[in-house]
Amino acid sequence: MTADPGLYSYIPYKDRPKIVWPGGKKLALWVAPNIEFYELSPPQNPQRKSWPRPEPDVVNYAYRDFGNRVGHWRLMEAMDEFGVRGSVSLSVAMCQHHPEIIAACQERNWEFFSHGIYNTRYTYGMDEAQERAVVEDSIRTVKTATGQDIKGYLAPALTHTMSTMDIIADCGLSYTCDLFHDDQPLPVKVKNGRLISMPYSLEVNDHYAYNVFGFSPEQYTDLLKRHFDTLLEEGADSGTVMCVPLHAYLVGRAHRIDPFRKALEYFASHSDDVWLTTAAEISDFYLANYYDEFDAHIRAHGKGGTA
């Protein structure tokens, strides 16, 4: 039995090379709206059911469909208000199902990265060729619809395999959101190319706040602020990253959007110290300025390097 996924090396949080974000900023903050499509009757994966109730599960389908009908539009307006761009975690089939939403994101100069084809088609059980086909389809679909070359990947419904990192690096992507192990980007061990782990916190994900922890909208805003304050303080020693993963069918509800606006307002009020950016921009900056230094530090002080 494998005791460790072997995807990254261990180095303590303290005494790493110092990261300074553009403009001398201490914290890089990115917001990740998950723009997803859930199929009413998807092909069955033998390892995981798509819906908790017998199909067709109209209740859960319609509950999530709210995000595409109402929530995304409400969330986009709130983010516009505070000059926050999105890095879209995209079910790429949305390019065909709801191109209006994709166009609205493009108008705002938002980034797209792949979250698989549908959030009801899981990677569990796929062989390498099948998973590679999903990644290649994502690259083609987003390029055709938006002109963008995707740089990142979050496996559909977080169902990555032991081959996922090698496949996405070999396909030319530069970051993965499927590792939740750190508050700074770090090199990931892959067979070909260079890949970094982009901090994507499940702890401040609105899905966990509302559906798992049972938070009120005000408690969620307080959680975001406290998470932000700590990372900003620690970023004075070495730059940190905060991601705010969102689902418009949750945070975009009428009674939740105003408390979330207060969190956005709080983030924007610290613009002297905070880089409000996208995951692709963080990845580009880290690869150009810190990847090699961190790799050398890991080889000297950690357990293994990226080779």
From TrEMBL:
Residues 69-175 form the NodB homology domain. One of its GO terms (biological process) is carbohydrate metabolic process. InterPro entries: Glyco_hydro/deAcase_b/a-brl (IPR011330), NODB_dom (IPR002509). SUPFAM superfamilies: Glycoside hydrolase/deacetylase. GO terms for molecular function: hydrolase activity, acting on carbon-nitrogen (but not peptide) bonds. Is involved in generating a small heat-stable compound (Nod), an acylated oligomer of N-acetylglucosamine, that stimulates mitosis in various plant protoplasts. Belongs to the polysaccharide deacetylase family. This is Chitooligosaccharide deacetylase. It comes from Parvularcula marina.
